[in-house]
Amino acid sequence: MPTHYYLTLSFVLFLIGSSGVLLRRNAIIVLMGIELQLNAGNLALLAYSRALGDQKGHVFAFIIIALAAAEAAVGLAILVGLFRSRQTVNLDEASLMKR
Amino acid sequence: MAFNLRLIPLLPFIGAALLLLFGRRWKRETVVLVAAAAIAGACLVAFDAFFSKLPEAAEMGGLRDVVWTWFSAGDLKVDLAFRLDALSGLLCLIITFIGFLIHVYASGYMADEPDYARFFGYLNLFCGAMLVLVLGDSLPVMFVGWEGVGLCSYLLIGFWYTDNANADAGKKAFITNRIGDFGFLLGMFLLFQYTGTLNMSDASAGAVQGSALTQPLWGMTAAFWVCLFLFIGAVGKSAQIPLYVWLPDAMAGPTPVSALIHAATMVTAGVYMVARLHALFVLAPAALAIVAIVGALTALFAAIIGFAQNDFKKVLAYSTVSQLGFMFAGVGTGNFEAGVFHLYTHAFFKAGLFLCAGSVMHAMSGSGDITIMGGLRKKIPWTHGVFFVCWLAICGLPIFSGFFSKDAIIAGAFSTEIFGADLAWVGKLVGAMLMLAALGTAFYMSRLYFLVFSGKTTRASHDIQHHIHESPGVMVGPLVILAIGAGLGGLIGAPTGLFGHPEWNFLGHTLEPVLGAELDVPHTTEIIFMLASTVLAAVGIVLAYAFYGGGYRQPAIKFAQAFPGFVQLVRDKFRVDELYDFLFIRPIKRLSKALFFVVDRIIIDKILVEGLGAAVDLVGRLSRMFQTGDGQRYMAVFAIGVAVTVIFATRPTTPGELKVRVSGLSVDVDARRGGRPSARPLEYTFDFNGDGKTDTKGINPEGHFAYEKPGKYEIKVSVVDPRWGTESHLTRTVEVR
Amino acid sequence: MGAAIGSPPGLGEQILFWVLAGWVVGGALFTMTRRNPVTAVMSLVGTFFALAATYASLSAHFLAIIQILVYAGAIMVLFIFVVMILNREEITPVTPRGLILRVMGIGAGLYLTRVFVRVVATSPGADVPGKVSDTFGTVASIGDILFRDFLYPFEAVSLLLLVAIVGGVVISRSHQKEVAAEIAAERRKAIEEMAHAPYPAPEDASSSGGGGHH
């Protein structure tokens, strides 16, 4: 398939992930949106890698997966801490600023 | 000729510094010793300068001592310099000598004062400032002394500042003086603007004569305004109408201070200034006329107020105002020597009178109410004797000092020719007013004398009567010396017109190099006015005896019953204070209150302070709305920002950039951005006649079109970037003829 | 897949792509719209499987395996655990606060997607798939490049993971034991003070005894 199909798929996936990040209250879902965004990036990297015949894109994608793992670990740990202190994982209730 | 003139003011200043810095811990004897030694040293230097050095230097403008250049800016160069000529020398002698006597007297009078060192420190400072004023060789230096005595008067009048009335009197003196000082400053500025010099010796040496000062300014000559403004300064300092009100209130200070202010320092400054700058004043006869009339009016007015005052020192205060009026009338009629002469005699008898007042009040347990006095002649004989001499001197009985000086002024006023033909009436008018004032002087001074000293017993309470005693030696000694001066001091200025021996008039020929030849009064005129003033004085005394001899007599009581309103008015000092209060003080207070409310409360407090705070608060509230702490919203803003950036960055061209050149019926259109070819492949669609149909299309940014007929056409170009999918529209209307 | 190299896509390849693309987009949308986090996680796992297949269709075999192992396996299990701990059904999945701004942000994202897709589609050479060798994307060749050219970044990633593990432990660690220890220490202290305190005065004792009647 031509590369731009994959790239378009990557953009759409990123948009869906972004929408979740922007709209959802639940921090777990937001983290999932971030995972989607990262995967969209991976997809674009791999598509270009395939188009250019250069495997460095694979390496970057590999590193991004590792980074996603680290992000998920720390992010979920933060969520657990947040839940422990405020009994909620809703982002709009987590802010300490006055409204 | 060089001489260490700086020593004269410096010694009192050193004394003041020592006393004010360390005096608090010293014994009383030490304090008195330092204070008196400082002023005595100054006195000795002054005597030395005046009698042994000055005669050689008199023709060269006197002794001069330049300490350093004070400031120099452009054409203006002012030295801190002192000059001692006959005039300033005479004043120096008066200040230091009488000042010394007052110091000695005060050491006894203030014996019970806890704040001894401060008092003597101020006294020294006062004398030092006055000496700077007198010796200053330029107007700025004089002004330093001028302000210095103002400050010291404030400090000394309000010496017992714990009492509110005293502090208020000090403030009144200071503020009233400030009004005059403002005039002094204006005069100084104006003088510099027109002559370029502020140097006293230049001004009085005639350097200003015939210079720019005679040119017109505001309807008069410049000299007139300079003199008028300077005279306003003199009016403030020398307590003339309308700024005399502070002097009677200055009685709030200790009596030696009153004596110092009234006799030796402070109030004579104005007269001295006019005499000092006589070269300026003679350039403006109109200004001199104002000086003379104000002086005569003050002399008369204050004398009338003196009729009904019942406080010993108040009577003397109004007497000072009145006598200062005489001096101004003297200098104002161009009779400068007589004015200075009266200043000199007045210094003696008024110092004597005030110190007598202090002595009397000392005897009367501090009370100055003359209605309860009487018969003190036997009880305090020394004081009585001194007062008697001074009384005759101020009344102007022959041989006594006041007689010669007052007579010189009156006779001079009638025979002066300085005003010219237009203003010749001024001299006569002033002379007549002065004669009335002399009569009044004799009357109120005699009233004072009779009420206090004549009669059998006092009307005071038993306790006070029991305590009546003569003052100690340190107080009586200075009194006696002053009495001798008051009695015989006038002989040094024996009028030439009377005796025909100019050399007998020591004062006259001493002052001649400075003030010019004395006014030539014909022999007969002299005799007539001497007789007249003697008669007037005698009438005043006799009248006063009839009214008050031995206490209140029937005529006095009947007079008061016949004109109760008038007597009350005079007793209330013509309610001038109340008038000023109504005219100036209350409006100013009201204005201040209004300003306080409008400027302070509203503009500064509400608008500037609170308004600024509110503005910051509002900005904070507004900007807080952006700081939600909600990362999701931040991300949304970020996405919007990226989109907006992309929209702007990917526009094919900016709107309104359509270059059109019309030639005949055809147009050439260039749609390139900034006239440069775009790096991106763009598509241009041209619609030249605004009919919505495409005329030309392609990648060529330039279009050409020929219209069929003249008219107005709208050219529309749409530019499309096919890669980014963006589009811009450019429109322009052209008219083809 | 190997057949697609350098030639126009065949019908089978096209069908495969569209199926996978539909699966990915649908799964992602499904994930983002679920109220129940467990459902969301499960659909996300499905999405990741489809993505892994897509990677494979791009000759990224190694990454496809890693995607399944790490993402669908490890990370999603972690998610499941956290969801189990914190599971709360949402009543309103979207907060109404600042909704206009968020929707505008999504609108901006839509615009950007449109622009980028257009740019990508019109880029020269984007419509032709590149030619790759047979070993492209295999474990051997990726391992070769990873440990030869990208050794230091690789090691840095391992450090990053270590830090993330430590950070996760520190952040999510329970403080209950420490709190309990503090409370116990205070109690001990109070008991000691009571032991050393002087005996209560007799009046107090009698009054407290008197109060006992109530």
Quick overview of this protein structure:
Chain A is mainly alpha-helical. Chain A has helices at about 5-25, 25-50, 55-85, 90-95.
Please describe what this structure looks like.
The complex is a heterotrimer of chains A (99), B (737) and C (214). By secondary structure, chain A is mainly α. Helix content of chain A is 83%, strand content 0%. Chain A has helices spanning 3-23, 27-52, 56-86, 91-94. Chain B has a four-stranded antiparallel β-sheet with strand order 8-7-10-11, with no helix packed on it. A three-stranded antiparallel β-sheet of chain B has the order 5-6-9, with no helix packed on it. Chain B has a two-stranded antiparallel ribbon with strand order 1-2. In chain B, helix 13 (285-306) runs parallel beside helix 19 (424-453). The termini of chain B are far apart. The model of chain B has no long low-confidence stretch (mean pLDDT 82). In chain C, helix 1 (11-33) packs antiparallel against helix 2 and helix 2 runs antiparallel to helix 3. The model of chain C is unreliable at 1-6 and 204-214 (pLDDT under 50). The chains are: A mainly alpha (99), B alpha+beta (737), C mainly alpha (214). Chains in contact: A-B, A-C, B-C.
